[in-house]
Amino acid sequence: MSTQRARSTTPTALAALALTAAVALTACGGDADEAADVPKTATGSLEQLAKQAECNPNIQTDAKELRQANCATKDGKYVLATFATDRGQREWINEANDYGGSYLVGRKWVAVGDEKVVTALRGRLGGTVESGASHGGHSGSSAGSGGNEDEHSGHH
Fold this sequence. Notes:
The protein is an alpha+beta fold. The chain is built from four helices and seven strands; from the N terminus they run βααβββαββαβ. The protein is globular.
């Protein structure tokens, strides 16, 4: 599959990417608050993170602000995205939260998949697990990745 090149990513495009990731890969699950053997949060390029997660990334978006790939490992399928800025990452997560799902969040990267996959990835990449708003009823394991959740206290 050829790599898609884009020069800029609009908020509408970010929302579409978030929706695609959430619809394709989400499922409600039980408690994901497993803190055993969580490594220091990984950093690096999309390719470096994918290697550490034991994934051969299928690049779907290759833009200045956002790089996104589909990944599949023995644990399941997920989307791995890297961001040029912390603000861009937080805006993407805020948009995606409305669609539900589980997110493994690191500095300038996020992995989106079902709770089981995200929990397994956390054992390789570290990070913080966040749950989307449509999964109301459970609180997720934390939102302490340094992001601002003030604007998202429920459904809009």
